[in-house]
Amino acid sequence: MTETTQLTAAHRELIDQVFDKWSLQVLEALCEKPSRFNELRHAIPTVTQKSLTATLRRLERNGMIERVIISSRPIAVEYRITSLGGTLEDLIDALLHWSTAHMPAVQRARARFDDETPPPHDASS
Fold first, then answer.
1. How far apart are CA 9 and CA 3, in angstroms?
2. Alpha-carbon distance 41 to 19, whole Å?
3. Would residue 12 be called left, alpha or beta, if left means φ above 0 and alpha means ψ between -120 and 50 degrees?
4. Strands 65-70 vs 76-81: parallel, antiparallel or unpaired
């Protein structure tokens, strides 16, 4: 029998920061190849500059990516997956495969719920 781990506040915080909407997409892109900021913006066209900046900083703070200054004219910055961040690649792939395989069932469940659940009552009337 395997030992179970309790989900603590620290676990929840890390999971929230590493597997949020933008972080998953950034990690997926950086697992493929190191990228500059604008390359990431093009790879994830719906992310805003502010959200991408915050996501990159959060991932860097958690040790998942590194920011590398490239000495060129002009100076460039490139983001790379770290060895710690690379350990998430199989997990990200598994989540993507799981969601792809189960999306039809999730969509059916959502439709069933929406059909069976009355709309919220408008308290103003």
1. 19
2. 18
3. alpha
4. antiparallel
